[in-house]
Amino acid sequence: MSLRYEEVIFHGKILDLALETHQLPDGREARFEMIHHPGGAAALPVDTDGRLLLIRQFRPAARGTILEIPAGRLEEGEDAAECISRELQEEIGQKPGKVELLNKIYSSVGFCREMISIYLASDLVPTAIAHEEHEFIDLVPLTPEEAFAMVDAGEISDAKTLIALQSYRRKLSMIP
């Protein structure tokens, strides 16, 4: 499928909305509404005690607060590892000494180009928290067992967080 024509119909602060015409594999053309997003980075931070540092954050799309891993949007020219280092400092007041890529995911491939790089962050060093004015974030440290029990009970609904926790669970099970 190849892009034949694109018309940006909305240009926003964090995303653009475009009407795109693509040539389909069978040669026909079809029009799609597509969100253009610069991409993001997220991380499952693990402290020196092995606790997972999740956050409870107000999210208007979820109509309230949601439990998730820290994440943020890529700034122009920024790579994902730099982005997540910045976001961890801003959101939980921790600078990672080490980031290890766990996965890359499309957030909602049916209509959005956003690609999220998901990391495991460790060797954390305390820094000052610098929440943005519209962010309401509470730190929620959990043992891996507590977090995995929440996943199994269906108490975590954020996709990037579920993928990070499942990847971490798999990683732990591979350790001899």
Helices and strands, in order, run as EEEEEEEHEEEHH
Radius of gyration: 18 Å
- CATH C-level class of the largest domain is Alpha Beta
Oligomer: single chain
Q: State the total count of DSSP E strands.
A: 10
Q: What is the fold-level CATH name, i.e. the topology of the largest domain?
A: Nucleoside Triphosphate Pyrophosphohydrolase
- Relative strand content: 35-45%
Q: Overall 3D geometry?
A: globular
End-to-end separation in angstroms reads 44 Å
Strand order, largest beta sheet: 7-4-9-8
The overall pLDDT, averaged over residues, is 93
Unreliable stretches covering 5 or more consecutive residues: none
Supply the CATH superfamily name of the largest domain: Nucleoside Triphosphate Pyrophosphohydrolase
Give the structural class. alpha+beta
Structurally, the number of domains stands at 2
CATH arch. level architecture of the largest domain: Alpha-Beta Complex
- Give the % helix: 10-25%
Question: Describe the biggest sheet?
Answer: 4 strands, mixed
Number of helices: 3
